[in-house]
Amino acid sequence: MTKTTKWRTLFAAVAMTATLALVAAAPPAWAAPPDQADAVEVYEGDVFVIVGSTLRNPDATTDPSAPLFNNAGVNLNLTWGAWSAASATSAVRTSGKSNARTDVRLRFSGLVPGGVYSVFWGTLNPDSENPLCPGVERTLALPSVDPGQLPDASSFVAGSDGTAAFRGGLDGDLLTASQVFFSIIYHFDGQTWGSLPNRGEFQTQGAECRSSFGDDAMRHLLILQKW
User: Fold this and answer.
1) What is the pLDDT of residues 39-51, one digit of tens each?
2) Dihedral (C-alpha) 76, 79, 82, 88: value to the nearest 10 degrees?
3) Would you list the domain boundaries of the chain?
4) Phi/psi of residue 20, each to 5°?
5) Assigned CATH for 35-226
6) In what helix (H) or strand (E) does residue 137 lie, and over which residues does it extend?
7) Half-sphere exposure of 103 (CA within 13 A, CB side)
8) Do 216 and 199 meet the contact criterion of CB atoms below 8 Å apart?
9) Sign for the pseudo-dihedral over CA of 169, 37, 67, 217
10) pLDDT per residue over 52-80, tens digit each?
């Protein structure tokens, strides 16, 4: 074997090793693509407009320029048009079997600029329930994969243009439930409550737990992930 032939043989072996390494490092061909949301809805049940002399939830007939209020009549400094412009995309992927894990990636537009938000999740069949507020609160906080997430592990602050991104993770396969949803909660007062979505539930934890949605916290978007 000549010297040139030896080098060619060596290079061929190196190239084959590199190819095998790349194949081994690549994700398996059978890996399923992430699950996309079935629908995204703007939630109007926690905000109010004044109709005559009463507070009412907005509906299809509400003028986009109508100002929004909380359930105590405090102006939110938002219009129905701005509120209803919010949208989101989501991608959920699960991995593992015996030690399954769920990865959730959310992107938002049209949120309240600089607004403080939290991400909670819920399921139906089996039905989720928050043990800190039994019989009242069905959703649970979705923790971020970022250990330095602020203002708390399940919350974020929207950008000045109303956009945001959030990545969360949970132990277990969330998609085994019949229905899965995410609740994107706007905190009017800028205060988050960790494992609970609003001040009322945080202050009344236990058997007498009471919600304050519509007062200090408003569900802005419902992401119907599996519906």
Assistant:
1) 999 999 999 999 9
2) 50
3) 35-226
4) -65, -35
5) 2.60.40
6) none
7) 10
8) yes
9) negative
10) 999 999 999 999 999 999 999 999 999 99
